[in-house]
């Protein structure tokens, strides 16, 4: 079999964003803290990034397309002075210049300035936007975060503080949002009532830090304090930190389970659970549910490695690093423009053939989406001489799209919607294939009392999906272009 | 005398913008037409530029800091497909990243998309913005053009077409604006009731083109049709072109006279008058009002040359090109960071010493603002050996700031506000000095029936200046930063 | 304890270069093959890279400072047409613009063009250069590769083919060189008589490929054929491939042992030995020589991981991925310009604290050079709560500088030259410390019959070091600047 | 008639280079002086530029493709410390990356370092290079300046100082060269025995400055001292300045007459003659030789303007600036990739139609090369309504190629070689056409005792042209690529 050239540009899922913010006591530079924090969150978004700082209410910011190390340098960071900051990384899509969609969004409203960094996806953004337009609003981006800004600005007219406006906004917007809001005097961290996306709080001397993942606290030297709770509003200003918990009725706690499986860093702790341990646990469960006689357990780098260590631990089969990943290949990989046929090139991933030859291999990956990667991995191992290849997947089959901020595609593209496990096994050319059972998800997180969202596996969505959102599911925001009316 | 290093970075005045738009019949590519048009208008703004195209109502655009040749290339232009386009060049200020303020502004409102390119300055923008904020509006830029967008979006809710919304908007906004508005189906060109800024219409086969100056029509091969009239709205759509003239009461026609003196290109015709002829005429008037015995007439390149030719023609004194300008020195001139003393360096302008030595020279420049250039020019000529230097200025003394879109500074900085002509003559070291008399301005434009604004010379402002605008006079837009409230 | 900000910018050793070349049969594009090959060799040099192609003897090339993905794009690769190519990656030093030193070197000489890609360091380059200068030679770079070009050009005058000239050159130059030479009609691969640096040969249909490491063959789809032997000259032209082995007397085979320990990729095979297996073997030896009771074995990413797996395998202590590396931090890491104190930030490496807390940890790293990293690793683990930290090093102590192409520094900087193991243990704060014994190096490579150079550990240098080379040991080439005579 | 899109990308001739050097007494920074000097010489070369500084014999340099303002910034200039410097601008060709050919060339030879900046073209470079190759030399560029370096390095072995080596070199090389040579302790300025290219000397306090044109002295504040004489070697070191005049036999003084006509700046003085005055004189001569009744005299900007002023002065016909040049269009002008037909666009040059309409116009340009511009100018004026167009050319017809450093093409491309004046007049559509008579060239330079080369007009070449040079006439250096031998 011959591979196409870009075989191992792994079909992946993408988180939409990461956020990081700080209210400094003067012992830490907000812009540099954000820089370190964003570096630690870079895996959550590689399209664009930005930092907005507030210097006594005067905002300065810098944002651009590209990685954190490409967008920022000493000169820029030194120019971003202030006492507090919010910052953002956004996920990398293919195609056009969408700098307008980079965050933080910075705007002026009746009470001064507002800077917003947002992770998640609203499920009623289109409806709200339509309503605002009917009252004369104009929009300069295609992201739902601008809708949030508008609602806050409007609600601010009806109440006495920006935190009250945020609380009122939370009664209007629906869906997933972990939000950092910077007003002239306050830094406000918000997590939606379901708690779809993670958000935690740290401390550095008397500075307060908020980040999508605890690993970002480590990166700026802050100590982990606690997770922001679903439905909670944490306000930091010169008087210190305080919390509000508006009443949202009975909302199911629903952290995205895929944060543990794939999105988050191994060294993060989310809602009381170690990501690394959860992944190892998934490996252990797979070892129990799908045991096999084999010579080694191998993880597909990087996301399959933790589960492979767990599988090895449980099964006693030795763990080996038999596939090597080239860390110099990033977003810019070049394919030949000529349509020349290339033999099975191993550019991104390369097996250690002499280790694999004649061996029975258990290979572990985090998920199967469209099915275009799995057979390449199996073929690569077989070409390297593996006697048997047993594929284990540390998540259940994807059956449903996600409306809360990840890019799990529509059902038509999901291989598990259109094929049985047997068919997928056959297509993958593996000697056996085992998915993590849906019913083991709770066990994966060590039966911790964490409510989670498994809508992509079960179709049980914790928050209602509007008809427009259902139709408009699309990467990168609301379905703007179809929405173009022809004025007359 | 010793000069500082950047002697001849001529203190200049700057127009704020140039606009160019096209509704194509298919025989001309809108993006390339805009590229040519913007190149021809580059002198009106070197800070940033942008092109927005509409492809059946779907907008694509590209804008960035920099010159037209830096911001655009074939790949970008080829990607901008559509049937119509609006585009913009913005003037170069020092300092920070202000990409957010680049134009055209592109936004979505209740009726689809709206793209706006704006030349001029509103005099009641702050008041309108405050009012909009009181009703929940948010602002993402610091330019008054965003205010115009908002008002159009609001007015659109109350009427039946975008052109009606534009007409209603013109009853709300005050000051200077030559405006191109692109809705999903229409290209609309607007000139404020006073006609402060120029705007003309051209034709290329059945395509309609609008530009700040007629030279930009030449640059894309279009034929000049006519100027857009003050207070006129010209609408182009698939049915052709039509005009609206809302009633604005009795508004004085008030084209900025400084367009003839300095801003516009020599090869443009504005409101029926040739810019080149007006400048030559200014030279002729100076020759009559301030005759002198001399050996040659020299213009300070480039803006003084036309008037110098006119002075030579009227006086019979030979015209000479005795000062050479280095055209490779642009915005990026570097000064030594060491504080070393440099002798009178002639980098930007260099006199032809052997031509000047022992001669009586009439030297003509377009204006004196702060007075920092004039003595350098005189000293340069004297050092080159000139026996006498007679300075003639092809405009009257600047006495008042401009609120309609040029950066004439506050009175404190204007040398003519603080010194008599005699004092200025003495400061300049010239043997004589003559300004164009205010009362000759009409003669300068050959007594053409053109109403003009000479507020900067006379203090007679044709449109009312609000108190906020008066205080807020500042480069680059509204005085936003002082405006930062502290929310609580 | 407080760390400085850039704690974990790991003090590393650097290989000077990687080379890749191809003589194509027409079924593979040489420029794209080089691109893939260089990507696979990027770990050997991140300073600059280049590709030279020969199209019927007409050379075109592109080289620049930066990573392979930064220097090349489709447009450039498509412009590099030809039948054969040589290419190069060079190691990243700090500081000045040294594009002149980028390779391949391309030059014209009496027989047409010559392109050279060179990995290694000559030990008599200065002497040869002096001699050439005495006869009128001029030099445009500071690298010894230019000396090789000169010698080939001179020798070519005395013999009948370029390969003969290369063979004669090998009698003149001394030290380490794996060399690819491209003449108008031939691709020539050369390895010095000691075989200090690796070089292997692969095949893709009837195309011949040469690379510093076998992993680069995988990356372009070529099959491994064999290593180029020490002292061998392999010539490929349209008549196929042939080999020359000039007589060099009795030269000890001396492959750099540090290729196995650190430089090469885990998935490469060098001179018949798997790098991954050698590293695991080092871990196993350490487990036997320095056993300890512990709860987990952890590798310092990436280079300590293979040995950690081996240690775990031999000792039965579980392997854990308890330190996470941020792969987005490259060469461009920014330190704050303010001298603010930062608490122990974990930006590049971050421990999974909840895994480590209260545990006895065996931590494995590949080497200790100056000793500035080891105590940071130990402190990081102790701060994360480790009860005991047992450091194991998968190489012997560095006692001597390297003159053959790696940047092991002078003895004054090597911690093991100035401290006993006990002192180093104490400085590192580890509970125990064990180095791989020098006498186990042969066991590390599974007692394979590979002659190796362990000069950096033993001071036994296989090739003579001239006095000038001894004095001139320095990064980036010959000690040129001190060499500036003052002409008179 | 319809024009192609790039009508007025004027077919021009190009000088190959400009040089600038300084030996500082400490009161002026050499790098910044070079920066200013190169800016003033930018018209002589826009392809690449570079500055090399010598700090007590240690060379640092920076060179790159692009304009002076693009290649240098404060950071780079501040890093270039030293007591003396040489610098260079090179002319802009289309196509490939030829950074290797940028100057100054910096090399190491037996006596330390040598930096060379060269303006001109050798006529026996190929022969010398062949000879050097036969003795083992290698070449890394395709420019003849590298040949000069080699010869100096070789000759230095045979004598006692670098200036003696330069003197000996001048006996070997033939053709055009104005040369700046920087050795560890000396700055040496050289002009070939014919004096083809200009070179002058200035003084700034006790610093000595050398430049291709006197205008570059003005730009750094230096005073003009004198021209370097043909065949002269000027040496500056810490002991001051001295001159050598080796015996070259009877060499005809042969300054390129085209320096006066086109290459040099109007404000330069070359060998005692004002460029501006020479151009005006050419205009006066044309007025006498080809008088005509007309309403105005117009120069094609910029190079035709001086002669137009002279024509006007002599004829009494008024001078008008009736064609406007867009100074924002540089090298990067973009043509539409679509092959759409554009009407006569006036992007680079635009006539002031209302001035021209119905008028008889004398239009003056500096030269006609291929004839592709002249008819466009005439057509442009006629389309603008000119009643008559009388073309006057301020140089004689080009009949022969240039071998001394300008890119006058081969005879096949020269319109005057293949057409009579009558035919050219007809092709140009002008009502009359007059060239400056060859016999008036001496009158043009006011009968100054300047020997000049008019080989391009007469075929009388002052220095012998070798057969190889004759065949190899080509832009950018020696015809290297055809020269590729196939080694065997």
From TrEMBL, chains A, B, C, D:
<feature type="binding site">
    <location>
        <position position="402"/>
    </location>
    <ligand>
        <name>[4Fe-4S] cluster</name>
    </ligand>
</feature>
<dbReference type="InterPro" id="IPR005854">
    <property type="entry name" value="PurF"/>
</dbReference>
<protein>
    <recommendedName>
        <fullName>Amidophosphoribosyltransferase</fullName>
        <ecNumber>2.4.2.14</ecNumber>
    </recommendedName>
</protein>
<comment type="similarity">
    <text>In the C-terminal section; belongs to the purine/pyrimidine phosphoribosyltransferase family.</text>
</comment>
<keyword id="KW-0004">4Fe-4S</keyword>
<feature type="binding site">
    <location>
        <position position="366"/>
    </location>
    <ligand>
        <name>Mg(2+)</name>
    </ligand>
</feature>
<dbReference type="InterPro" id="IPR000836">
    <property type="entry name" value="PRTase_dom"/>
</dbReference>
<feature type="binding site">
    <location>
        <position position="456"/>
    </location>
    <ligand>
        <name>[4Fe-4S] cluster</name>
    </ligand>
</feature>
<dbReference type="InterPro" id="IPR029055">
    <property type="entry name" value="Ntn_hydrolases_N"/>
</dbReference>
<dbReference type="GO" id="GO:0009113">
    <property type="term" value="P:purine nucleobase biosynthetic process"/>
</dbReference>
<dbReference type="InterPro" id="IPR029057">
    <property type="entry name" value="PRTase-like"/>
</dbReference>
<keyword id="KW-0408">Iron</keyword>
<comment type="function">
    <text>Catalyzes the formation of phosphoribosylamine from phosphoribosylpyrophosphate (PRPP) and glutamine.</text>
</comment>
<feature type="domain" description="Glutamine amidotransferase type-2">
    <location>
        <begin position="17"/>
        <end position="239"/>
    </location>
</feature>
<keyword id="KW-0315">Glutamine amidotransferase</keyword>
<dbReference type="GO" id="GO:0000287">
    <property type="term" value="F:magnesium ion binding"/>
</dbReference>
<keyword id="KW-0460">Magnesium</keyword>
<comment type="pathway">
    <text>Purine metabolism; IMP biosynthesis via de novo pathway; N(1)-(5-phospho-D-ribosyl)glycinamide from 5-phospho-alpha-D-ribose 1-diphosphate: step 1/2.</text>
</comment>
<dbReference type="InterPro" id="IPR035584">
    <property type="entry name" value="PurF_N"/>
</dbReference>
<dbReference type="GO" id="GO:0051539">
    <property type="term" value="F:4 iron, 4 sulfur cluster binding"/>
</dbReference>
<feature type="binding site">
    <location>
        <position position="256"/>
    </location>
    <ligand>
        <name>[4Fe-4S] cluster</name>
    </ligand>
</feature>
<keyword id="KW-0328">Glycosyltransferase</keyword>
<feature type="active site" description="Nucleophile">
    <location>
        <position position="17"/>
    </location>
</feature>
<keyword id="KW-0479">Metal-binding</keyword>
<feature type="binding site">
    <location>
        <position position="303"/>
    </location>
    <ligand>
        <name>Mg(2+)</name>
    </ligand>
</feature>
<keyword id="KW-0658">Purine biosynthesis</keyword>
<keyword id="KW-0808">Transferase</keyword>
<dbReference type="Pfam" id="PF13537">
    <property type="entry name" value="GATase_7"/>
</dbReference>
<dbReference type="Pfam" id="PF00156">
    <property type="entry name" value="Pribosyltran"/>
</dbReference>
<dbReference type="GO" id="GO:0004044">
    <property type="term" value="F:amidophosphoribosyltransferase activity"/>
</dbReference>
<dbReference type="InterPro" id="IPR017932">
    <property type="entry name" value="GATase_2_dom"/>
</dbReference>
<feature type="binding site">
    <location>
        <position position="365"/>
    </location>
    <ligand>
        <name>Mg(2+)</name>
    </ligand>
</feature>
<dbReference type="GO" id="GO:0006189">
    <property type="term" value="P:'de novo' IMP biosynthetic process"/>
</dbReference>
<keyword id="KW-0411">Iron-sulfur</keyword>
<feature type="binding site">
    <location>
        <position position="453"/>
    </location>
    <ligand>
        <name>[4Fe-4S] cluster</name>
    </ligand>
</feature>
């Amino acid at each position: 079999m011959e591979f196409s050239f870009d075989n191992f540009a792994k079909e992946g899922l993408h988180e939409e964003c990461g956020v990081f913010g700080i209210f400094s006591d003067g012992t830490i530079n907000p812009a540099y803290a954000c820089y370190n924090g964003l570096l630690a969150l870079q895996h959550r978004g590689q399209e664009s990034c930005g930092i907005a700082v507030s210097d006594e209410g005067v905002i300065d910011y810098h944002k651009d397309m590209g990685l954190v190390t490409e967008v920022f340098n000493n000169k820029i960071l030194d120019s971003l002075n202030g006492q507090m900051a919010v910052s953002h990384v956004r996920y990398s899509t293919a195609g056009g210049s969408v700098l307008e969609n980079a965050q933080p969004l910075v705007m002026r409203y009746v009470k001064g300035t507002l800077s917003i960094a947002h992770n998640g996806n609203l499920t009623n953004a289109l409806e709200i936007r339509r309503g605002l337009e009917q009252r004369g609003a104009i929009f300069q981006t295609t992201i739902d975060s601008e809708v949030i800004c508008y609602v806050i600005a409007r609600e601010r007219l009806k109440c006495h503080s920006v935190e009250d406006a945020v609380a009122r906004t939370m009664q209007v917007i629906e869906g997933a949002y972990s939000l950092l809001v910077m007003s002239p005097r306050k830094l406000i961290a918000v997590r939606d009532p379901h708690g779809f996306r993670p958000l935690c709080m740290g401390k550095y001397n008397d500075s307060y830090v908020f980040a999508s993942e605890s690993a970002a606290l480590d990166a700026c030297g802050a100590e982990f304090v606690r997770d922001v709770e679903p439905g909670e509003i944490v306000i930091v200003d010169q008087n210190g930190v305080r919390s509000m918990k508006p009443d949202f009725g009975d909302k199911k706690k629903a952290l995205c389970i895929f944060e543990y499986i794939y999105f988050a860093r191994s060294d993060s702790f989310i809602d009381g659970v170690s990501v690394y341990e959860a992944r190892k646990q998934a490996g252990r469960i797979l070892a129990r549910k799908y045991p096999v006689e084999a010579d080694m357990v191998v993880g597909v780098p990087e996301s399959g490695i933790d589960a492979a260590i767990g599988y090895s631990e449980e099964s006693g089969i030795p763990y080996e690093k038999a596939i090597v990943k080239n860390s110099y290949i990033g977003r810019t990989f070049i394919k030949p423009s000529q349509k020349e046929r290339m033999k099975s090139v191993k550019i991104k991933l390369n097996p250690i053939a002499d280790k694999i030859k004649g061996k029975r291999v258990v290979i572990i990956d985090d998920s199967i989406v469209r099915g275009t990667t799995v057979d390449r991995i199996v073929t690569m191992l077989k070409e390297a001489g593996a006697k048997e290849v047993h594929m284990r997947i540390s998540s259940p089959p994807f059956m449903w799209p996600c409306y809360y901020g990840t890019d799990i595609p529509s059902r038509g593209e999901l291989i598990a919607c259109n094929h049985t496990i047997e068919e997928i096994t056959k297509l993958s050319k593996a000697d056996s294939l085992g998915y993590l059972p849906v019913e083991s998800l709770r066990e994966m997180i060590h039966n911790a009392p964490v409510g989670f969202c498994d809508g992509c596996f079960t179709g049980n969505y914790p928050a209602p999906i509007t008809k427009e959102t259902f139709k408009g599911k699309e990467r990168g925001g609301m379905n703007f272009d179809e929405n173009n009316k022809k004025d007359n």
